[in-house]
Amino acid sequence: MGKQAKIDSVAALKGFRASVVRFAHAATSAIEELDMQLQRTLIWLQQDRYPYWKARVQQASEAYAQAKIALNQQIVFERAVQGTPSSCIDARKALSKAEQRLSDAQAGLEGVRRWVQEIDRQLNQYRARVNGLKRIIDSEVPRAIARLDRMVDSLQAYIDLAPPEAPLPQAGRTEKQPVQRPAPPGQEQDDTEDMG
After folding, report:
1. Lowest mean pLDDT segment, chosen from 5-14, 33-42, 148-157, 172-181
2. Model pTM greater than 0.70?
3. Which CATH architecture has domain 10-161?
4. 32-90 pLDDT tens trace
5. Cα dihedral value 79, 83, 89, 93, nearest 10
6. CA 11 to chain centre
7. Residues with Cβ < 8 Å from 156, sequence gap 6 or more?
8. DSSP string spanning the chain?
9. What is the radius of gyration, based on Cα positions, of the chain?
């Protein structure tokens, strides 16, 4: 028996077990919450922002085409009426604004496309990394909890065992007094010989 155990408190093991259970629950909840947030962000980009910017590009394209037609019509009209083309400042400003709105909408749509790809890539990397932790939480933690339960049960059973009965000290005897043993057969004790 080379190994000895010093058992101070079974309650400490029970407390550690409770901490492991809390950790597993907190880690699982955190992983699930983060996964849902990332998934919601991806869905928001795909189902809300992408259609929004696509519609903005469509509207801006139509507005740009109309502004261009309006400028060309004004140039043709003024050439026909005045004989010389005019500067058509207002029509050119409207075309420039329409072109800027189209450029902004296209940039917004391209930004959403990039973010969808980036978040999807990051989400896949995150899930690959988190799977190891999830496997530990799903398989190793229950095993560790079961082992702790067995340890607690074993230690509690050991503690509950009654200690072996120790011999009680003889009445009237102190630890410093030597124990008198009976003399072997055929020999008498010294104090009886002196009496004779």
Report:
1. 172-181
2. no
3. Orthogonal Bundle (1.10)
4. 999 999 899 999 999 999 999 999 999 999 999 999 999 998 888 887 787 776 778 88
5. 10
6. 28
7. 10
8. -------S-HHHHHHHHHHHHHHHHHHHHHHHHHHHHHHHHHHHIIIIIHHHHHHHHHHHHHHHHHHHHHHHHHHHHHHHHHSS----HHHHHHHHHHHHHHHHHHHHHHHHHHHHHHHHHHHHHHHHHHHHHHHIIIIIHHHHHHHHHHHHHHHHHHHHSPPPPPPPPPTT--TTSPPP-PPPTT---HHHHTT-
9. 46
Residues in the chain, overall count: 196
pLDDT in tens, 87-101: 788 889 999 999 999
User: What is the rounded CA–CA span in Å between residue 139 and residue 99?
Assistant: 59
Contact 54, 109 (CB under 8 A): yes
How far apart are the C-alpha atoms of 68 and 185, rounded to whole Å? Answer: 137
Spans of all domains in the chain: 10-161
